[in-house]
Amino acid sequence: MSFLIDSSIMITSQILFFGFGWLFFMRQLFKDYEVRQYVVQVIFSVTFAFSCTMFELIIFEILKVLNSSSRYFHWKMNLCVILLILVFMVPFYIGYFIVSNIRLLHRQRLLFSCLLWLTFMYFFWKLGDPFPILSPKHGILSIEQLISRVGVIGVTLMALLSGFGAVNCPYTYMSYFLRNVTDADILALERRLLQTMDMIISKKKRMAMTRRTMFQKGEVHNKPSGFWGMIKSVTTSAPGSENLTLIQQEVDALEELSRQLFLETADLYATKERIEYSKTFKGKYFNFLGYFFSIYCVWKIFMATINIVFDRVGKTDPVTRGIEITVNYLGIQFDVKFWSQHISFILVGIIIVTSIRGLLITLTKFFYAISSSKSSNVIVLLLAQIMGMYFVSSVLLIRMSMPLEYRTIITEVLGELQFNFYHRWFDVIFLVSALSSILFLYLAHKQAPEKHMAP
Amino acid sequence: MASLDRVKVLVLGDSGVGKSSLVHLLCQNQVLGNPSWTVGCSVDVRVHDYKEGTPEEKTYYIELWDVGGSVGSASSVKSTRAVFYNSVNGIILVHDLTNKKSSQNLYRWSLEALNRDLVPTGVLVTNGDYDREQFADNQIPLLVIGTKLDQIHEAKRHEVLTRTAFLAEDFNAEEINLDCTNPRYLAAGSSNAVKLSRFFDKVIEKRYFLREGNQIPGFPDRKRFGGGTLKSLHYD
Predict the structure, then answer these.
(1) If we measure between CA atoms, which residue out of B190, B196, B193, B189 comes closest to residue B174?
(2) Using N-to-C axis directions, what is the helix angle for A281-309 and A419-453, rounded to 10°?
(3) Kind and range of the H or E run holding A448
């Protein structure tokens, strides 16, 4: 009886998450495009719903809501469904939509998408070989096999994003790094842009007039095509068409220049807006946060290095350690059990909410930057795949932030994975990502001022 | 030859609707072989005979400014784009017949191009609703072109064309529906070619034969940066 009640609660929450994913898709991601294949929207919302359910189960675990056995059942079921989606459905549909875009293979779409999916499975399986993630006693088609590989990919992604985010966040928040841009700079650049456009226009006018006179005289401008055409063009070539190709080359160079100038002007406008924003209260608040985050970032990099160098993995979670410190050193006595439950709930809750929000925002920005009307389906499915893998590995890693008594469910459900390996792997990739982001941002920052200040 | 008079026509629309293919077709009478992303603005020139076939025939250059991007771009990109909207004589709005969103976005595109000099900071304050009155007293001729006609199934063609007719009416503009990869839609003598010719003639008339002087009323120079005006670099 209680199982039915629990299941109905779970299903209601899943429907809620599904609705949220659907709305997010429609309002944010696809607001400039038309959804023609509803399959894509359904898959995205389903992935989102099941990922959020996993987090919900963790919270229920801490708060001891619902029956323990029904929780365990739902964990297992949820995990199976998510793995099914991430390993079978989404890659297959990605292959299907890629193939649909290519005109040649349009006829045998299903065949080629199956082939693509098989290739994906092969590489996915091979991924497990170089990593010491499994003990050999597991069978070939068990949950642990799939989860371990999904975990590796997801943890790599998480560490890359976190490393870049940890460095980029103070860089964007702090106004110390803002270049000084004046209105005169922008005006000067715009003037250059319009001058370049004028030059392009005058050359195009000559080309258009030449083409018209050639057309009226009955000559036709043919680009030399084929072997015989090239031989012919060596001996006999109308002076008009020679001129045209020459001018066309000049125009190409000017157009490239105009594109560069356009991008630089857009950059200057963006910097100017940031300067104005930093003078407001919100801007000043973020500036202060930026200093705080830069200290946090340096501390994290330091800790990651220590972890790798001294080969240690934290055994206790921050909550228990914090409570130990307060009890032992500060002598404050309080009910450990009661407080540890609530504090870990708040801590884990904050981690979950910020990581979901951060991921959705990053995905949206990414989507706007690289999608076009043809590739939007494929890109959204890729993002759904990344989102699913990200959330699964968050569950793996969040285990470390929880006190021992709450970790058991994750250990039980996910089986005997080498959790320590994942933490070590996270530290390594985080370090690499953070250091290369610092290098990248430094180079980009150095190179920019010279471009703009030159007249 | 380069001393012919000129008019400037903007070509606006969402990314991927086929503006670059259209401009190439209009200016070079050839189909664009390898369309790629337009960054910033690309210009092409068409030589047009005003009042062709009559004694007052005169040749003009029509500059087609194909501005790339999407309506949802960052405001810094919009401010940069705004520099191309100076002294515009006509606007061609392009939408994709297979994509309803691109037709809806045309309202925002036209507002961006027409309203921009009411707002000194270059940031749009309008909430995107169009106002018929704005288009009724608008002096700049508009033309609505729908692309990818060949991809519309015969059965749905009537419904799509009715929708686009309403759209063109809202803008108080003519409309042309075609496929940019097929030059026969704009073949000399076809109704599309006649509409196009009429549109260009109207643009030239408004620019050169309007008795209220050479400036189009209600379209003063942009005032930006607290009073300084951007000197127009074009010879008027």
Answers:
(1) B196
(2) 130
(3) helix A419-453
User: Which two tokens mark A423?
Assistant: 């933490």
pLDDT tens track for A188-230: 888 998 899 889 988 888 888 888 888 777 755 555 555 665 6
Question: Are A100 and A376 spatial neighbours (Cβ–Cβ below 8 Å)?
Answer: no
Amino acid (1-letter code) at residue A151:
G
> Chain A residues with CB inside 8 Å of B75's CB?
269, 273
Burial of residue A69, with CB atoms counted within 10 A of its CB: 0-12 exposed, 13-18 middle, 19 or more buried: exposed
Q: Return d(Cα A54, Cα A355) in angstroms, integer.
A: 14
Nearest chain B residue to A265 by CA distance is: B80
- What is the H or E stretch that residue B198 is in? helix B191-208
Instruction: Calculate Rg over the CA atoms of chain B.
Output: 18
Read off φ and ψ for residue B61, nearest 5 degrees: -95, 130
Task: List Cα–Cα distances, B33 to A178, A221, A261, in angstroms.
Answer: 43, 16, 26
> Which region holds residue B29: left if phi is over 0, alpha if psi is between -120 and 50, else beta?
left
Torsion, Cα of A9, A14, A17, A21 (10° steps): -170
Angle, helices A183-217 vs A239-278, to 10°: value is 160
Alpha carbon distance B158, B17 (integer Å)? 20
Give me the residues paired with residue B49 across strands. Answer: B59
Beta strand pairing status for B90-96 and B41-50? Answer: unpaired
- The full DSSP string for B10-39 is EEE--TTSSHHHHHHHHHHSS--SS--PPP
Residue from A222, A223, A262, A275 to probe the interface with B (highest B Cβ count within 10 Å): A262
Which residue would you say has higher pLDDT here, B58 or A235?
A: B58
Q: Which residues of B touch A264 (CB under 8 A)?
A: none
CA distances from A271 to A182, A449, B75, B180 (A): 10, 12, 11, 38
Interchain contact A374–B (C-beta under 8 A): yes
Q: Are strands B58-67 and B6-12 parallel, antiparallel or unpaired?
A: parallel
Q: What angle do CA B176, B127, B215 make, to 5 degrees?
A: 60
CA dihedral B67, B70, B72, B74 (to 10 degrees): -50
Residue ranges covered by each domain of chain A: 1-176+294-447, 178-214+238-284
Domains of chain B listed by start with CATH number:
6-209 (3.40.50.300)
Query: Which pTM was predicted?
Result: 0.69
A450 vs A40, higher pLDDT: A40
Cβ–Cβ below 8 Å for A33 and B99: yes
Q: Does the beta-carbon distance from B70 to A32 stay under 8 Å?
A: yes
**Environment class of A260 (CB within 10 Å of its CB; exposed 0-12, middle 13-18, buried 19+):** middle
Chain A residues whose CB is inside 8 A of the B74 CB are 266, 270
List pLDDT tens digits, range A412-431: 776 667 777 788 888 888 88
Is the reported ipTM for this assembly greater than 0.90? no
Distance CA A111, CA A94 (A): 14
pLDDT at residue B217 tops 50:
no
